[in-house]
Amino acid sequence: MDDQELTSEEVAVLALERRGWASPGAKERAIREELGLAPVRYYQLLNALLDAPRALAHDPVTVNRLRRVRDVRRAEREG
User: Fold this and answer.
1) Rounded-to-integer distance, Cα 6 and Cα 51, Å
2) How far apart are CA 41 and CA 3, in angstroms?
3) Rg (CA), the chain
4) Dist. CA 1–CA 14, nearest whole Å
5) Residue 2 in contact with residue 52, Cβ under 8 Å?
6) pLDDT digits (tens, 9 = 90+) for 29-42
7) 10-56 pLDDT per residue, tens
8) Which of 3, 7, 11, 16 lies 20 to 30 Å from 36, alpha-carbon distance?
9) pTM of the predicted model, to two decimals?
10) DSSP state of 22
């Protein structure tokens, strides 16, 4: 696989993140039902994707938004 290609699972994770969610419960249900993943595994994959240049190339808007959210949360925990 080329370094710039995402797996179908990675593409699905980013697609799910682009959607709006009425509640965390609805998102967790979608993670389980649509992707067949436990939420913990989903968030592990997502976090790794946020640091992957190929994910940024695939969906810069979503990846940059999620990076900003992650950075704010990290700063709140540390500060």
Assistant:
1) 13
2) 22
3) 13
4) 19
5) no
6) 999 999 999 999 99
7) 999 999 999 988 898 999 999 999 999 999 999 999 999 999 999 99
8) 3
9) 0.87
10) S
